[in-house]
Amino acid sequence: MSWMGLLRRTLSSERRAIIVYLINTAMLLLIFNLMMDEVSVVYPLSVSLTILIIYLGVKTYALFRFEDGLAEAKEVADFQEDADHEKDKLVFHAIRAIHTDYLDKLVAMNEKLDGRNSLFSHFIHNMKSSLAVIELASHKRSDEVLADIASENEKLKTNMEQLLNLLRLDEFTNDYVPERADLLEIVQAVINDKRRSFIYSSVYPKVKGQSAYVYTDRKWCSFILDQIVTNAIKYSPQGRSVYFEIVQEEDVGLTSVRVRDEGEGIDPEDLPRVFELFYTGKNGRSHKQATGIGLAMVRHTAKRLGHEVSLTSKLGEGTCVTISFLSKLKAY
Q1: Does any domain span residue 68?
Q2: The domain containing residue 52 runs over which residues?
Q3: Euclidean distance between CA atoms 68 and 275, whole angstroms
Q4: Which one of 75, 98, 120 terminates a domain?
Q5: Are 55 and 182 contained in the same domain?
Q6: Given the DSSP bridges, would you call strands 254-261 and 318-326 parallel, antiparallel or unpaired?
Q7: Position 165 confidence tier, pLDDT thresholds 50, 70, 90
Q8: Are 193 and 205 in contact (CB under 8 A)?
Q9: Residues whose CB is less than 8 angstroms from the CB of residue 96 and which lie 6 or more positions away in sequence, other chains included
Q10: Most confidently modeled of 102-111, 119-128, 158-167, 247-256?
Q11: To the nearest whole percent, how much of the chain has pLDDT over 90?
Q12: Rounded to an integer, what is the distance from CA 249 to the centroid of its chain?
C-alpha cells in the first residue's frame, strides 16, 4: 500500500473539512489581527497548520486501518472487525452479512448438487438395469420375454419422466402458472390418466366431495397427486379401493384433498422419514420398484407451490396423504 496514494485519498475524502478549516483559520487570523495592535501571522498560522497536519495524520491512519480491514474482509469471512467510527462499523457489518448470506447460499447449492448427483446416479443405474434385461430378453422370443421387455420399458419411461420433472424443478418459477382451479376436476383428471394402472392392479378409485376452487398450478398439482396415487396403487392389494376426499374448511380458508388407500400401511418407525430422499423403509425391501423418490419430490414440489403435505398410516390398515391448499387469493 502506497503512503502517498493513501495521503491523496485522505486529502480527497477530507477536502470539504479542509476547506472549512482553512476558511475558519483565515477568519480567525483576520479577527486576531484586528484586535491586536501589531500584525502577527506566523504564530497563529503555524499553530493552525500544526493542528491541520495532526488531523490529517489521524485521518490517514484511520483510512489505513479501514482499507486494511477491507482487504482482509475480501479474503476471509471470519475477519477481525477493527473500526472506531459508526460508518466504518456499518460497512463491516454489511460485509459480514453478505459473507454469511453467500456462504449459506453456497452450502445450499452444494447440497442441491449433491442431491441431484445422487438422483442422476440412481436413475442411470435403474435405466442400465432395464437396458440389460431388454438386451438379454432380445435373444429369446416368447410371450413371457415380450412381457418382460414391456415391463422394463415402462420402468425406463417412468425414470425418464422423473428425470424430466427433476430438471423442471430448477426452472420452477418460469414453469409456474398459479390460477384458480377446481380441485375436483384436477383429481378426476389424474384418476383418468391412471385408469390403466387402476384396471391392471384391480384397484378402484372412489371420490367423495364436490367442486372446490383453490389457487395452484394445474400441472404441478397433478404431478403431486400422480405420485401419491402411484404409491397408493402400488401398495394396495387387488380388489381394494383408493379413496379421494375433498374437504373445505371455510373458517380458516383451507381446502384439502385426502388420498387414502387400503394397503399394508407404513411401519411407525418409518413414518418420520417417509419424505426423505431415497428412503424406502421396510416396505421398500419387499417392493423392488420402490425408489424413495416419489414422496420426496411431492414434499419439495408442494413446498414450492405453498401447499402443505402430511401423511398418516396404520400398519395393516393403509395410508392417508393430505394436501392442504389456500383457497383465498390474498395468500398469493
Answers
A1: yes
A2: 3-75
A3: 49
A4: 75
A5: no
A6: antiparallel
A7: low
A8: no
A9: 73, 77, 79, 81
A10: 247-256
A11: 17
A12: 29
Grid cell in block for residue 240? 381394494
Burial class (CB in 10 A: 0-12, 13-18, 19+), 168: middle
pTM attached to this predicted model: 0.58
pLDDT at 283 over 60: yes
Residue 188 belongs to some domain of the structure: yes
Cβ pair 229, 242 in contact under 8 A: yes
Output the pLDDT for position 310.
Answer: 93
In a domain, 114, yes or no: no
Does residue 38 fall inside a structural domain?
yes
Buried/exposed 48-85: b ≥16 CB within 10 Å, e otherwise: beeebeeebeebbeebeebeebeeebeeeeebeeebee
N-term to C-term CA, the chain: 53
- Work out the angle at residue 300's Cα, subtended by the Cα atoms of residues 297 and 304, and round it to the nearest 5 degrees: 135
Structure confidence by residue, pLDDT tens digits, 129-156: 667 767 666 666 666 767 777 777 777 7
Domain shared by 207 and 62, yes or no: no
Number of domains in the chain: 2
**Shared domain check, 181 and 324:** yes
296 pLDDT band (50/70/90 cuts)?
A: confident
Q: What is the pLDDT of residue 41?
A: 72
The cell numbers describing 311, all together, are: 401423511
Q: Give the H/E segment covering residue 261.
A: strand 254-261
Q: What is the mean pLDDT of residues 69-73?
A: 70
- Of the residues 33, 56, 75, the one at which a domain ends: 75
Grid cell in block for residue 204: 378402484
Identify the pLDDT of residue 1.
53
206 and 322 part of one domain? yes
Give me the CATH number covering residue 202: 3.30.565.10
The strand pair at 204-208 and 241-249 is best described as parallel
Closest by CA position to 319, among listed 257, 246, 259: 259
Tens-digit pLDDT profile for residues 208-224: 989 989 989 998 899 89
